[in-house]
Model the fold of this input.
Amino acid sequence: MTGRRRAVDPITFELVHAALLSAAEEMGGVLKRSSYSPIIRDMEDFSCAIFAADGDLVAQADHIPAQLGAMSLVVKSTLTRWGQAIADGDVFIANHPFLGAMHTPDINILSPVFVRGRLFAWTGATAHHLDVGGVNPGTEGPALEQVYAEGLVLAPVRLFVGGSENPDVMSILTENIRDPLSTISDLRAQRAACLLGRARLLETIERWGITTVRAVFGQALDVVEDAVRLALAELSDGEAEVEGFMDDDGRGGPPTRIHARLSKRGDTLAIDLSGCAPQVAGALNVPWASTRATFAYVVRVLTDPHLSSNEGILRPLEVICPLGTVLNPRPPAAVSVRHNTCQRIADTLVRAAAEIWPEKAVGSSSVTFFGINIESVSPLTGHLSVLSDVVGGGTGAHPGGDGIDGVDTYMSNVGLMPVEVAETNYSVRIERTELIAGSQGLGALNGGMGIRRDYRVLDRPHRATFYGEQTNPDFRPRGARDGGDAAPARVLQFDSEGKSVPIPPKVSTTLEAGSLVRVETSGGGGRGPAAARPPELIATDRDDGRLGD
Amino acid sequence: MVAIDIGGTFTDAVAMGSQGAFRVAKVPSTPDDPSQALAQAVSELLADGVPADAIDLVSHGTTVATNAVLTGRLARVVLIATEGFRDVLGYRDGTRPDIYSLEPARPSELVRRRDRLEVRERMSSRGVVTPLVDREIERVVREVAKLRPDAVAVALLFSYLDDRHERAVGDALRARLPDSPVSLSSEVAREFREYPRTATAALSAGLRPVVGRYLLDARQELEALGIAAPLMVMQSNGGCVPAERAEREAHRLVLSGPAAGVTGVAALGARHGLDRLMSLDMGGTSLDVCLMSDGMPPVAPSLTIDGHPILAPAVNIETLGAGGGSVVRVDGAGRLQVGPQSAGADPGPAAYGRGGEDATVTDAHVVAGTLSAGSPLAGRLRLDDDAAREVVERVAAPLDLSLERATCGILAVTLAQIIRALRRVSVERGIDPRGFTLVAFGGAGPLHAGLILRELDLASVLVPPHPGLFSASGLVAADLRIDASQTVLAPHDPAGFEEMLGWFRLTAGQLVAQLREDGVPRSRVRSVASIDCRYRGQGYELSVPLPSVSRRGLHTIRADFDRLHRSVYGHANEGEPLELVALRLSAFGGLSHAEPPSVARGGSTPRAEARVGERPLLLPSDRRPARATVYRRGSLCAGNRIAGPAIVEQMDSTTLVLAGQQARVDGHGNLWIGEGRP
Done:
């Protein structure tokens, strides 16, 4: 235990802290319950949080890792832009990737909380909206070149002024997005969540007093920082340097290098990303808030998965990430598919950690993150709609056992679309979905298996966009501690006669009726030498048909 | 009648006679062969004077299916899937269980990969794509026979729309392997989404031999004791099924235990005219909570156990890792943490004196004085005051707190966790818990009920006469229940109404016939119809009740859905087209229920022998220790009133009444706690 003096006794701290977490969770409950889009309700692609007056994150409900620490930088840029003009009853909206947001579809709603006429805190809710306008339906696209192509960009502006809706901003929104009904409904749900958070926070202040609550704000960060430092101090010192690559730059160009030098001294972790590629032409660039989220994710998985999410997580880090690189781009870089790059950063940092602490080493998980959008006419309704699917891969082997087959990995957890849903709603037949024998890295412990899925488009030509990583064999998932590497991913196309048609792994194209797209995602890396795998487990692998030819 | 509830630690039995006669028995569970404890509990009832030949019905809540899933002791199943899809149980829904762990355990496999076979056939939503030919059926049945499985599951794509291929394979399997149970996905759940339907079929097949064997043992044990009465088994949906049919419905039994308690709460609410109820069952390791806003336990169309989905209606219960045995620790950063680890029943809290070395919530209660060395406790053990004090001291020291302050702190933090969970559950369902009545049971429920009452501003607390045996009492109140469903995925269009009404009529006839076979006449059958609906384009459904199964009823479901959507989600989209996802029909067969026993009437002041003493009580809300009067529950009479601070002790639980609260005893011995003076 560190000797730091605590302003608030541990019991009072726990009670007030529980009230703050409870407020953030209830905000999430309100948002989830009153939102329109399945992406919020079913995939939980949203976050709710409470911030100190200066924008430091104090309490965040646990939803998706990709949004860890989200909004804090947006609160800070709101303070910079609006300063003394911020008034009670205002509600701010922002999605600007270069003013603290993550990518344009993630819209942040922020409510300042005033106590006795002074700004005391903020409540915030961010949520992924399916469309915020731009060139592509659904806004995202790997080949986009500038943030201006990625839909409406909002600096922090006032959605509500003194408690009333701001018609100017509302009008700009409704005229620039494809589905204003659900977007505006969801924005109102986000505001409702912020107001509930504000009410709960005011109740907490009423009960415990403003001095105590302010002290708990500070202490919450201190205890998380201390927990991380303690966990780091228990690990041996060391450093490692690891690189990883994206297959291209989003537009079919050369591979994009991700490079990390990780160094642990005492209770501090230094992350040097200056070896990363300069920002790229396509939309694989990662805005700073998302890069920060990968740090918070990696600290949590390496130290304590149950850590509360707040600013304290990042304090023991010393980060170097020069401006103008792919992980800290300058405007007007496009960033909409930044999640694929985030998966690669997470993987690179996890591999660097494995070099420093071999006893904790895990095989790499798949970061194929194959996404496919097929614009299709629904056989049910005759309307045009978009089938949107993400196919996971294998996770890495770890000291406790084999990896998991066919799941989303690292910083997201998106499910696979059921065949019976896809074929009912779209003119598509999914002809095969199976685990790929031999796709996993073999070792004393094996990685998880990748997935093979076949999409055949029916009836008429279909516009489609798809993108996946790790099709370059050099960038396949690696094994740990002499464990075997996993097989790389493949994306194949066949015409209606079954003849192979060459296609790039990231493309927007038209698929003729009867043609078939096959994706094979990568498996997970193995751990330890394959010779050390007990014969009875190898026999099981063989009997279960898991081994390739 | 007799009700038997088998839990993880204890097996409880309750006998209720027509004249309010009431006998109870509590024996340790025998997990390796649960029928042993069942026999033991029933023979204790018989020894206590319950005549075997007077028992007209035995209802039973069992964890045999639950435990089989949780411990992986399922029968070996071979799965037959559509060509290209044998791995649906391998990749599941494509998500992983624990996002923040780099060392996640592999999800348990319901069917080994070598036992997952494919059959060449394909249906789609448009009809047959690849026909299933006889030669292919023969081939796959031969393959199955070679593998000599305990049971077989068949789950083919789109069988919820057209089950001809599944039936053809199923018929051939049943002819070739007459001794192996065969579960068809279209028989267990006619619902879309292939992963949950396949998992349900595989679980059904894996459970049938286990449940079948157990029920055979149980019936033999009962017969050996001279009991010939029919045996009914509680299902996850809060209704019973006759044992003869329970084997085929094995996948419907996994929430059998918790469902009984909630059913008991609903029955208690009905008797007292209460429809806003919060059921709180807190034991040694966990806390089960269920919110009812219309007097009925909310039933979800499916449940998840050990990561496996089961498409069978289940009472909507939230389980939290907070119980009397929750371990209290101080972490490296100087934070006080309660749970989620539990000392369980063995060694249990330090105060149990069985070698437990961790401080637990129960130990804090012992130091606080709510539990005392003198209190009787389930299992007839004596609490060890000194051991409790010692482990709580060990928590207090690193926090630099006095023993008293640490004790109050542990109780306050535990309460804050419970409140946080209750708020989350209520706000996610759009329910304001203020004004609800909390029915508290389980060993530790009544200990925390008064604190929750105050914190959440509830109307009152109801503590049933035997909180530790309440699940068994719930079985006494249960009726038979059968559920049927059919995915339709059709627009809300009068052109399709006749076909839907046809399904409801046909299915209603089948369910009534089934209940008649179970011994319930048509006059005692009640059916409830509903339709899962959504706005077109939404990925989630709401189940809308269909009060009248008629064209008119189908017309008005549109407005009903808008209204329900508004009340649940806060908004409605009246202009959006409606999609009907699934038809649901549940039939209830009324059983005759014994009246709960009455207790003797007394004055407003409890008799002298009910007051067993006084002791100091240390609570988070109090500035200094208060002196609480201690009462013996069994000696209280109807009409008695008790002012807090007070402690009411009984064999199976301890009830805490805070200063400023008052409790009264009703004619059936229930304890009602409210805020304010008597």
Notes: The two ends of chain B are 37 Å apart (CA to CA). Residues 194-224 of chain B form the longest helix (31 residues).
